[in-house]
């Protein structure tokens, strides 16, 4: 079964063709990074208009790269949320229109589940049950992926997501947008590596919090004699990575999972990958960076796990940009 996946939840317009939820035939991404660099962050209305301009060319390029025609497709999948409402509406309406015009069923997909399902695009399928650590610009989640493929939310961020914290601290340090890559590059140049920043462990919970850490960096930067920027960047990255990897390792051991799955844009962070590999009590699955950022392949892969949720594009759709299939966080 060949599924066209469409993604437009934030600042990447993406489309991909995936066969049977595993075999990648194409993956095309139009990034808006340069567009939002001037404002130092994503402006929702600007993002939505950019999706309008890019979506049709991106879909055409994905079909061409896959050597597919519309007749070769069995369904169209699209991100239904969470994400920026205006950006989601562009993708949803475009996918619905294409499905209607081509007589194809439509499969709405949860964006966060899509990130997790990127691990199914790797050569070896992950073992279940699994503990998924989803770390991106807008989300920091610990999810239990059951053997039947269902998702249980164990915990998440109480304030900034890890990616947001990277961007905000990068701005405090005078770095560019997006903040993650330049901050990590700066951290790698640190020489002393003695500075220690707070870690919010939130004992008895799988939740995370980075607001206090961000404030600590602000106070350092504004102090009369601040440490070198590289030292601050290193200490910040170590604090975030330490908490995330330890939380994931503890939850994996407690839940007796067979594997740990990394997902989301921040999952491409080299230091995070190293620490999760060091601490995880079981095998770790990590997608390559191209599958960590928002992409259509992960949406198509997730859709294959929800073929029973196909809907007719002709029917009224009760689809809202919201998270599905995940109950409130379970306290431990």
Strand content: 15-25%
Low-confidence regions: 320-332
Strand order of the largest sheet: 3-2-1-4-5
Level-1 CATH class name of the largest domain: Alpha Beta
- Tell me the number of structural domains: 2
- In total, how many beta strands? 10
Treating each run of at least 4 consecutive H or I residues as one helix, how many helices? 11
Question: Overview of this structure, please?
Answer:
By secondary structure, this protein is an alpha/beta fold. The chain folds into two domains: 133 residues, Nucleotidyltransferase, domain 5 (2-Layer Sandwich), CATH 3.30.420; 159 residues, ATPase, nucleotide binding domain (Nucleotidyltransferase, domain 5), CATH 3.30.420.40. The protein contains eleven helices and ten strands. The chain has a five-stranded mixed β-sheet with strand order 3-2-1-4-5, with helices on both faces. A five-stranded mixed β-sheet has the order 8-7-6-9-10, with helices on both faces. Helix 8 packs parallel to helix 9. The radius of gyration is 20 Å and the shape is globular. The chain starts with a strand and ends in a 28-residue tail after the last helix. The C terminus is likely disordered.
What features would you highlight for this structure?
five-stranded mixed β-sheet, alpha/beta, 332 residues, disordered C terminus
Set down the secondary structure blueprint.
Elements: E1 2-7, E2 12-19, E3 23-31, H1 33-37, H2 44-65, E4 75-81, H3 85-102, E5 106-110, H4 111-117, E6 130-135, E7 140-145, E8 151-156, H5 162-172, H6 180-187, H7 211-221, H8 229-255, E9 259-263, H9 270-279, E10 283-285, H10 289-292, H11 296-304
